[in-house]
Amino acid sequence: MSPPYLAGVATAEHRFSLPLDYADPEGTHIEVFARELWASDKMRESLPMLVFFQGGPGFGALRPSGRSGWLDRALQEFRVLLLDQRGTGLSSPIHSRALSALNSEQQLHYLTQHRADNIVRDAEAIRHQLLGERPWSILGQSFGGFCVLRYLSVAHQGVAEAYITGGIPSLSRQAEEVYRATYPRVAEKNRAFFDRFPRAQALADEIAAYLCANDVRLPDGARLTVERFQLLGIHLGVEEGAEALYYLLEQALLPSPSGSQLNPGFLHGVMQMLDYDTNPLYTLLHEPIYNQGHASRWAAHRVRSEFPEFDYRPDRPLRFTGEMVYPWMTEQFQELKPLATLAEALANKSDWPPLYDAAQLAKNPVPVAAAVYTQDMFVEHAFSEETIDQVANLVAWRTSEYEHNGIRMDGYRILDRLISLNRKQALR
Q1: Mean pLDDT on 276-284
Q2: Up-side HSE of residue 44: CA atoms within 13 Å toward CB?
Q3: pLDDT (average), residues 237-242
Q4: Sign of CA dihedral 170, 173, 178, 180
């Protein structure tokens, strides 16, 4: 146990050496990091453990600054394990320099080992090391919910109860079906944004026109193009994201004797609000998280042609895009450029194994409580409902109160509600 650096919370850090490929357990190993937390006043109690699966893919676990939100609620009755999923945080993180010693074939093999199937294998290996045969509880936010359903498909015996927030995927739909459903959601979020902030449309259009007429460079030297500017729409689907986007737009243009100029603060803000450079796994594996026996082939890019309002032209209003990745991103983001060949190989890989066992989920014995956000821009609500009907012992709380990352804003209430739902299930 390390000295407490959060008020009222005891901490311990764990590092596990685990196989890169579980089919080759004696081969290459990676390090997986997890931070354990428990309330200081409950150190003598034998509390069950709750494992948190972060959203993404490609993001490390929560780095808490205090006991608040969902973590505060969880610490009332659990020890909490914040798992850096493989390739993220302190778990042998993936970036171009880390992969530079591998040839293209080795890089492809390495990346294919970083989906939910191996994240769950890691979790099971860690559970056995920490708890032996005792099961634990699991909580998945967004992509973390994908991991939860994978866990229940293949290792339900390791789970006492499960919680999902904003992350019930389809069990079978392909990536292009997902984007065909979510592009209209993004269009709705655009309309709501521009209705709410009347100045925003003129600002966005003027910025787009400026980017077309000028070679604008970001602080890292990369060019800010219109399509990269449009990626800021990912913030329209998160709590306080619309406000952050508007405040960025309103400071973008500065008057000068020679006409409007872009504010350097705006350019820094664009870089800060788009983390594709710092979290390359998000781009590389974003579509493969849906793949089961097929290739995604840049599905979001292909489907986009069905929604021409997202293709900017000076004679029509700009529309921001959402949680989509595109092939041109490996040309425009500095840290993705060395990974362009790998990204293309992943997009065209078709022999991805299955992720979910529908037959097992249909007889799932583990209590599952899920918060389903009916206006979610990232996870199509209709597809979540399909899955809810296919998973036994899953009770859903449907709400329009929150955006996709609602747990960040009102996590105490959300987790408290889900715990109550699972406890009621257990009493039946």
Answers
A1: 95
A2: 1
A3: 97
A4: negative
